[in-house]
Design brief:
Strand content: 15-25%
Number of strands: 19
Structural class: alpha+beta
Strand order of the largest sheet: 16-15-12-13-14-17-19-18
Largest sheet: 8 strands, antiparallel
Distance between the termini: 29 Å
Number of domains: 4
Oligomer: single chain
Shape: globular
Helix content: 25-40%
Length: about 475
């Protein structure tokens, strides 16, 4: 849920922040110089995007592709700048490029946002915060200056829980609404897993899921896949803890000459990537998507607190041919009204079941839309997602600029060439397309910039779908053709 909405529904224990502190964030500083009696903050955002996938990222950390993936996940933390509106502290693994954060603060008219980072960028951001005395002391001072402040992560991880427990032992007055009660902590990983989601949702009578099975190991997964192939049905094999399409193997029946060809292909795929060590594996029938609506992959996000569930938005997803996530589309033209209502009803039902288990915080449900427009629920992500910053950005524009009916397209892995450009060079080259173009309320916003790879993320904003798509295409013409996913 957007912070603008979430604080209206905050559970027991939330207090309005008192008079707090101002921070002088010089470009060379990792942590602020603390002053008093000036600014107040509502939220501390812990952008632990890489930490959420620490185990699977570390398994390939000794390969070039694995290191590139880690750099990408660390850079995605910069999207946290767009969460929650104004009056916030954003803690990232390393500082958001100064030129980028200054530009976006000016464009969005954000008066009170600071960015902090530990001196050492790590996959596990929360551990880095705890072990870095400078940033730890800054965080403690911020909370003391703003009693009742919200401390909110991208994902509730073991490292985040350790951070929260240490803050509590310091007798600080803050609120961590995404942290379930101790007896329900198991729900985070269980519902985030492919097998746990399937097991939980299969008990709900009003939710469609693809026919499928939970398999204990490689051999069982191959056997079940063979059964689908023998029936001339395409299937999908999923790693239990894959993310953003990593760990999804789409197996189309027409691509294999015979069962032996199928089996050899799957065994090679299993051997090539450690993501398949995340057992059990889920094997499901492949639902051929209706790409003309929401990219064939609609999604919905919701938020659960002690008072219940609130569905915040629906969106379409942009994926490549192998199911890897690229970005989202948010706007009234993404889904027909009836389908939008149906998907909201489904995620409401799923959310109610999560609520009863004790889960709290953000989650989304991803769907695949069949050719006859039936949305099949295929997985849940128990955290903020790749659409959260787009939705919060849209909400902020609606509130601060009184801009209704916007259509926004995001892309999270744009490779702009072979050579790495500085943030200043990227912004300069993009200048005539940057929001707001010609003082109009459409254009491009850069959401993050990688410093070691020629990659950035962006959002294309338009008054409607047609305009957003035109803005994006014109912007892409600045760069080499055929942008592709960094995988």
């Amino acid at each position: 849920m957007s912070g603008l909405l979430r604080r209206q529904h905050a559970g027991k224990g939330y207090q309005r922040p008192s008079e707090g502190a101002a921070y002088d964030c010089a470009a060379s500083l990792f942590c602020p110089i603390i002053h008093t009696d000036m600014n107040t903050f509502n939220t501390v955002l812990i952008a632990n995007t890489a930490e959420a996938f620490k185990e699977v990222l570390l398994e390939t950390a000794d390969t070039d592709n694995g290191r590139r993936r880690i750099r990408h996940e660390l850079a995605l933390s910069q999207r946290a700048f767009f969460w929650e509106g104004d009056n916030k502290v954003v803690i990232t693994p390393y500082l958001i490029p100064k030129r980028l954060i200054e530009y976006n603060k000016r464009v969005l008219d954000l008066k009170n946002v600071i960015n902090l980072a530990p001196r050492e960028a790590r996959i596990n951001l929360c551990e880095a915060v705890v072990s870095d005395l400078t940033i730890w002391n800054a965080l403690v001072q911020i909370i003391k200056a703003n009693p009742g402040i919200i401390v909110s992560p991208y994902a509730v991880t073991n490292d985040f829980m350790k951070l929260i427990y240490k803050l509590r032992r310091a007798n600080l007055d803050f609120y961590a609404p995404e942290l379930p009660d101790s007896e329900a902590l198991w729900t985070i990983e269980y519902l985030d897993s492919k097998s746990g989601f399937r097991e939980q949702v299969s008990t709900l009578s009003n939710v469609y899921i693809p026919e499928g099975f939970i398999c204990k190991d490689f051999e069982q997964a191959i056997y079940v896949g063979r059964q689908f192939m023998e029936q001339r049905r395409s299937c999908v094999i999923k790693s239990n803890m894959g993310e953003s399409g990593w760990g999804t193997l789409i197996l189309r029946k027409e691509e294999f000459k015979n069962l032996l060809d199928f089996e050899n292909y799957v065994r090679i795929a299993f051997a090539k990537d450690t993501i398949w060590n995340q057992l059990p594996l889920v094997v499901e029938e492949f639902i051929d998507p209706l790409f003309s609506i929401a990219g064939g992959m609609p999604s919905a996000e919701a938020y659960i607190d002690s008072s219940g569930i609130k569905v915040t938005y629906t969106c379409g997803q942009d994926t490549n041919g192998e199911g890897e996530f690229l970005g989202v589309a948010i706007g009234s033209e993404v889904l027909p009204a009836g389908l939008d209502k149906g998907i909201r009803s489904v995620i409401e039902a799923i959310g109610q079941s999560f609520f009863k288990l004790g889960y709290r915080g953000f989650f989304d449900v991803d769907f695949v839309l069949s050719k006859n427009s039936i949305p099949y629920a295929i997985e849940s992500n128990t955290r903020r997602t790749g659409g959260t910053h787009v939705y919060d950005f849209k909400q902020w524009l609606t509130k601060s600029r009184n801009m209704e009916g916007l259509h926004i397209l995001s892309y999270d892995s744009f490779i702009y060439g072979d050579d790495v450009l500085s943030p200043a060079e990227i912004l300069k080259k993009s200048e005539r397309f940057l929001y707001p173009m010609s003082r109009k309320f459409w254009g491009i916003t850069i959401s993050f910039i990688e410093t070691d790879d020629p990659v950035f993320g962006y959002m294309a904003i338009g008054r409607d779908k047609k305009q957003a798509e035109e803005v994006r295409m014109d912007f892409l013409n600045l760069w080499p053709p055929n942008p592709h996913l960094i995988r």
